[in-house]
Amino acid sequence: MEIQILMPALSPTMEEGTLAKWLVKVGDSVESGDVIAEIETDKATMEYEAVDDGIVAKLLISEGESNVKVNTPIAVITEDGETFDESELTPVVAEVPSAPIQETMSVSPSPASKIEKGTRVFATPLARRIAQDNGIDLHSISGSGPHGRIIRADIENKSSSAAVQTSPSVAQSASSDAVKAIYSDREYTEISLDGMRKIIASRLTEAKQTIPHFYLRRSVQLDSLLAARSEMNKGLADSGVKISVNDFIIKASARALQDVPAANVVWAQDRLLQMVASDVAVAVSVEGGLFTPVLRDSETKPLTVLSREMKDLAGRARDKKLMPSDYQGGSFAISNLGMMGIENFDAVINPPQGSILAVGAGMKKPVVDDNGDIKVATIMSMTLSVDHRAIDGALGAEFLARISFYLENPLAMLA
């Protein structure tokens, strides 16, 4: 019996990948759990293990081949002694619940008659959900799946057609040829998008189109925090650990999520998930994009542990060695551009998280103290981007106030 090995979905956003390297060859015997290939996803290069025993009969995808769709057959394993007839390779139709609908798709479903009103609609659960979320009548869709079943690609194709018919300018803006034509008399270098950049573009477009953002801004004085950090780092000089301002921001946010638990939420379409632990995601810039690894249970960890974990996650992110479990989850994120001299900015929420804190640089500025005297203080600007579906204005303000309290009273977050 032939056993098809399929391109796996190694992350929630993965729709296609690159077969970086085969670790087996035709004729090799493999057992369940053996590593047979290295797959490059939009996030990292990961090992792929066999789930069945057998003999490698055929490698269907060559090393280095990119844009291999998830659930595409990449190899065939047979039981020992069996022969393999490639003409009998069974086609696979499968769906991947990952990236959102995009405005431009090139899917062309096979001709089929549309389903009449009142008749039963055969569609996959994912296709039904996407259709419901986008207000699409399944009776108007021609199914291209087995026996006319409606699949995800059919919904995407319908959405794409509707967008083009409704707004020709959208179609033009989505066409690379149309954009290139505008600059036909100018010299430029064309850069193809890699998997990471495609996913970033898709998810941020989804976020800005579907999440009702609002923004809360607040400045804090960092002088007490900087003094505490200096003293702590003197005491840690022999340990090799050096605590950063960002470590304090992570800890302050983790404590604030515990103080204001109603803000520690994620949006789950028809409900909210209020988290118990403070799982804080932190944006890390890497070549070609960014990752947001998650520091789990941050409220329970001392600054030294958070500092070590953050450095480890950031290092593995830059080397593209993060596992999906390292960057999935979290209810809240931090994006800090202060080290690049940015004074303030607005960050985009990473769904399904409920909020993200944009942190600017600490800068020396004149301030008026409680006695009415002018003094110089280190001021840091913060902007909390909030999903209004999950968190209202007053709640978001309370949450940001608690973060500010801990940053201005650093010893309180260590108590």
How many β-strand runs? 18
Q: Rough shape?
A: globular
Listing every helix as H and every strand as E from the N terminus to the C terminus, the arrangement reads: EEEEEEEEHHHHHEHHEEEEEEHHEEEHH
Assembly type of the shown chains? single chain
CATH class of the largest domain: Alpha Beta
Q: What is the spatial order of strands in the main beta sheet?
A: 9-18-17-16-12-15
State the CATH superfamily name of the largest domain.
Answer: Chloramphenicol acetyltransferase-like domain
Percent of residues in beta strands: 15-25%
For the report, how would you describe the main beta sheet?
6 strands, mixed
- Work out the helicity level: 25-40%
Q: Whole-number radius of gyration?
A: 26 Å
Q: How many domains would you count in the coordinates?
A: 3
Poorly predicted runs: 91-115, 163-173
* Second rung of CATH, namely the architecture of the largest domain: 2-Layer Sandwich
Number of helices: 11
| Average pLDDT taken over every residue | 83
Look at the helices and sheets and give the structural class.
alpha+beta
CATH topology of the largest domain: Chloramphenicol Acetyltransferase
